Amino acid sequence: MALLRKINQVLLFLLIVTLCVILYKKVHKGTVPKNDADDESETPEELEEEIPVVICAAAGRMGATMAAINSIYSNTDANILFYVVGLRNTLTRIRKWIEHSKLREINFKIVEFNPMVLKGKIRPDSSRPELLQPQFAEMKVATASALGVIYLDDDVIVQGDIQELYDTTLALGHAAAFSDDCDLPSAQDINRLVGLQNTYMGYLDYRKKAIKDLGISPSTCSFNPGVIVANMTEWKHQRITKQLEKWMQKNVEENLYSSSLGGGVATSPMLIVFHGKYSTINPLWHIRHLGWNPDARYSEHFLQEAKLLHWNGRHKPWDFPSVHNDLWESWFVPDPAGIFKLNHHS
Fold first, then answer.
1. Of 219, 47, 72, which is closest to residue 160 (Cα–Cα)?
2. pLDDT at position 148, please?
3. Which of 48, 139, 180, 262 is the most buried (most CB within 10 A)?
């Protein structure tokens, strides 16, 4: 489980730092996406109507990717273009899974990693040396025609219309919107989430000079990058990718991030780069921590009101033990190869 969580962090961060780079090679067409069609009659206005949604496909949890896609596709009439990013073998299986399921009509692109991008950007982890191998590589997503893009972790399901999330208003000068960790539900809904971290202290090592010099209070509320709405025009203008890479490389040199949560991979560099410069997502569009503790349950009424559910934490809804897995399983798409199976029993 620890390995899968760390892999997911690596995949998330590398997606974000290269989100605005165009990749045209190794792209698979499902139903031909609008920006792949050879129809010169299409106008820029038509292309702008497409909503790009980026989801990771990680080995061992491809069923999660499929459930997330199914929940999004089934709850909207919007024109969605899914970018599914991952390793080659995983992507081969995902493509077959899509093509042999009820999701065969979705618009999607499959995007493979560049295996050399991690060099010099991830600190060696003596307990997990396998994470340094080139297979955990960058994600480059073709978003050339998109002014905005949505990123979602794979362990989510969407209960609302994704158009509403896409229409999130970003303040002038903001390149992204996230969920504040201080917008969590009331205490009665999370009273068993002991040890939950919601400040910068849990991600940055305040003993290091480079961190102290930032002038950020350790009690500042953190944010969760499992759901992101990005303005790519502003992202490029502010050179966000370069900024994130800088803090990635500085961590390799100085070990700046807390080992407890930050891990020097995903959230920590983003907390630095976006400090005081991000918009917020409607809290109902990111109800999280469903995977934090198998004994902690939200009220059924609250879950019905939620637009997006996120099983971040160790306890995933396709495994045992977990909570509210009935909500996730209702969107599960059976694996035609019979490899990915639900495990709801000890």
1. 72
2. 81
3. 139
Q: Between 178 and 4, where is the model more confident? A: 178
Cα–Cα dist 251/210, whole Å: 10
- Tokens 């109902």 correspond to 284
Q: What is the pLDDT of residues 28-47, one digit of tens each?
A: 333 334 334 344 444 444 44
- The pLDDT tens digits for 99-127 are 999 999 999 998 876 555 656 666 655 34
